[in-house]
Design goal:
By secondary structure, the chain is an alpha/beta fold. Helix content is about 35%, strand content about 15%. The protein has helices spanning about 20-25, 60-70, 80-85, 90-100, 115-135, 150-160, 180-190, 210-220, 225-230, and strands spanning about 50-55, 75-80, 100-105, 140, 165, 170, 195-200, 220-225, 240. The strands form 2 sheets. Strands 1, 2, 3, 6, 7 and 8 form a 6-stranded parallel beta sheet that branches. Strands 4-5-9 form a 3-stranded parallel beta sheet, covered by helices on one side. Helix 2 (about 60-70) runs parallel beside helix 4. It is globular and about 45 Å long.
Length: about 250
Amino acid sequence: MVTAAAACAAATVLASPPTAAALSRAPAGPSGSTSGTSAPAVDCQVTKCVALTFDDGPTRYTAPILGTLERRHAVATFFLIGPRALRYRNVVLREQRDGDAIGDHTVTHSRLTRLPLARIEYELNTAAAQIASVTGHRPTLFRPPFGALNDKVRSAAGAARLSVVMWNVSAKDWKNHNPHLIEHRVLTLVRRGAIVVLHDRYATTPPAVPTIVRTLQSRGYALVTVPQLFATSGALRPGLVYDHRP
């Protein structure tokens, strides 16, 4: 697996960095997120950064998560199911306005490693088109459902001009439907450069997010999007796999 270590190191040290909370929210790029092509608001080689990511939305549980992020001046990355993006257009546009990063999470949330190449390409490209019909921009990030990844899936992602974003901290909110357990797991495992996976499809996840965000900020972390996390170490590249920033 090619990880974030494949990114080239190139940083500009900030002379007087603002607080982590103030750094979290960056100007929106052309895809509604920080694209890594313009000057980032956060230099994660200087600042302690963590990227919270949410899979399987949008759903009716996404709005409370967005409310928390907005109140705390933080951003995250959302990996969207194509048909749900069409159903919850206003939520997707809210994510875009907030400066959150928006990624592709397929059409049917199938385990792609069990599918033929033509079906994998359909899942990626159709979801990307559905998301683009809402945001006006094709996503450049992709997360495979269930984290199921092999060479065939990675190759299809590269052909679709998608960077593959995995994770190195799992809240296991799909298994532990208890906000306190979700909080504890994230706050125990998180480290600088972590990519944390949560889900905005479960009712027990939104209640855990305020404590996670507040505690991470109190520890000096800036909550950033995945593109922001890698912006000052070489922007994300299609077909490469990123699971944390070293």
